[in-house]
Write a structure and sequence with these properties.
Number of domains: 2
Number of helices: 5
Strand content: 15-25%
Number of strands: 5
CATH architecture of the largest domain: Up-down Bundle
CATH class of the largest domain: Mainly Alpha
Shape: globular
CATH topology of the largest domain: Methane Monooxygenase Hydroxylase, Chain G, domain 1
Order of helices and strands: EEEEEHHHHH
Length: about 160
């Protein structure tokens, strides 16, 4: 089922962050007019064009409702399964979750890597993955709850520290 997004709607582009659909436009591609979403990603100050019929396959989705954002916050404070000590395996598992892009997947990456970093410093690639997952989580929750990013960052760390 294709989701139709509207101009001015905020959407999540997995591994890129929250964007706003600025326009729906048609571009000529192989002698055919193809409809595209023009999405502006404030976090990276970047505009991207996404073919309407590819948006769902790329994982583009609406921002989660308030209750789902609150559930993601709860999730990062919960007990979790120990993650593999082999960082390459861990990195690949987390990268796959990040590409799926659901808020609960992103929350579980933040939770597991945050706690792992308390045990042992994360390798550089994993640190970057943690930083981007944290930023994506902050971004979406702040839009969903209509709270400033700094306040959301505090909420996230309060939940992470709650053991």
């Amino acid at each position: 089922m294709a989701k139709n997004f509207q101009v001015d709607q905020k959407v999540v582009y997995p591994s890129q962050g929250v964007g706003i659909i600025k326009a729906l436009e048609k571009k000529l591609f192989k002698n055919e007019k193809i409809p595209y979403y023009r999405i502006y990603l404030e976090v990276s100050d970047m505009t991207i064009l996404v073919p309407v019929d590819k948006a769902e396959g790329l994982g583009i989705r609406p921002i989660v409702p308030r209750d789902e954002a609150l559930r993601a916050l709860e999730l990062i404070g919960e007990e979790y399964e120990p993650i593999p000590s082999d960082w390459k395996l861990r990195y690949q598992m987390n990268l796959d979750l990040l590409k799926k892009g659901s808020i609960s997947d992103i929350a579980s990456i933040v939770r597991s890597l945050y706690h792992r970093s308390k045990v042992k410093e994360l390798p550089i690639l994993e640190r970057k993955l943690y930083d981007s997952a944290l930023k994506l989580l902050e971004d979406e929750i702040s839009y969903s709850l209509k709270k400033p990013r700094e306040e959301v960052e505090s909420l996230i760390f309060n939940h992470l520290e709650a053991e």
